[in-house]
């Protein structure tokens, strides 16, 4: 070493520190790289991304080649610093101690912390770059890495640990995908993000959550006179109407209003004509997930179903549009919708109907009313109080103050909801 000029030794030291920094940066970049972005880049033809994925598929060998060179370079740098120190200042113990501190500082700053911060901040881009030299080194020194990993594998078995080879180890759960969508920022437009988030909730939402409740169903009573039925048909908002005989549970069919129009052009309408036009009703259990129901609608070529409970009692009605609106939001104005009129007043309150669905209220007013029990505001208040309240009674549910404005016929008709105060 004495025959090598001091300037050359200093240049070698700088080179060793730079190499150590490269391997430190490569280690962090490869471990922090987003595998899904790499896979996307590889599908678009990026060779660097494909090499990076191949290296990440054999993590033990990847870490083996990186740490092999990193430790060799760091040991060489420490030795070289000691040689330079002895040449300049002698071999006294305090001098060697200071040289050890100096080389530790140099390695920490220039070969460890700084490169690793760079690697972590630009992981995806750097992973594609460093995969080329790492792949070449691994191929050239495969036997050495394989030999070292034999001892690593033996130590892992001794500790009763096993390296994961399960291809499912890097798959994402539904909640992880949901978090990725929420944190996508400008990569996904807000409207698209809302639709994706709604998709994740489909399995947790039943037809009972989105149905039109029984007392809000627009239906025809075939037991009425033909004049009453014609008046009803002339003013209805929908093209398909349930037809019942006497009481709502006795549904006899579904009437397509356009067929009635064609019939009246030929001759006068009668009750028997309406009976002949009825289609068979399609009944749905209340607990059916709306994702499954969407498939059922498609398979059975239906657009409307009647929701019933376990005893066969009619609970409500759900349409294909109701399910689609759960995904993309309101898109039709064929019938008046009380939810669309809801907005906070100047006094921080809003007047709402007791039959309003809790999901619609939460979405429209930004509330967090519980959805795991009753589906309507009336049911939520009755369950909370365990009694039928009188007008003027106030409750606080999930931090939302609610005042009963009108209650009659054993149900709550109108309530006033006050905007919840943010926590101090």
From TrEMBL:
Q: Does the keyword Cell membrane apply?
A: yes
Q: Which CDD domains match?
A: CBS_pair_CorC_HlyC_assoc
Q: Name one GO molecular function term.
A: flavin adenine dinucleotide binding
Record's bilayer topology term: Multi-pass membrane protein
Q: Where does the CBS domain lie? A: 277-334
Q: What is its main location?
A: membrane
SMART domains attached to this UniProt entry:
CorC_HlyC (SM01091)
The source's domain of life comes to Bacteria
Choose one Gene Ontology CC annotation of this protein and give it: plasma membrane
TM ranges are: 12-33, 62-88, 94-115, 136-159
**What keywords would UniProt list here?**
CBS domain, Cell membrane, Membrane, Repeat, Transmembrane, Transmembrane helix
Where in or outside the cell it occurs: the entry states:
Cell membrane
Record-linked SUPFAM superfamilies? CBS-domain pair, FAD-binding/transporter-associated domain-like
Q: Which residues form the CNNM transmembrane domain?
A: 2-201
What family does this chain come from, according to its entry? Belongs to the UPF0053 family.
The protein's name: DUF21 domain-containing protein
Q: Please report the organism this UniProt entry assigns to the protein.
A: Zoogloea oleivorans
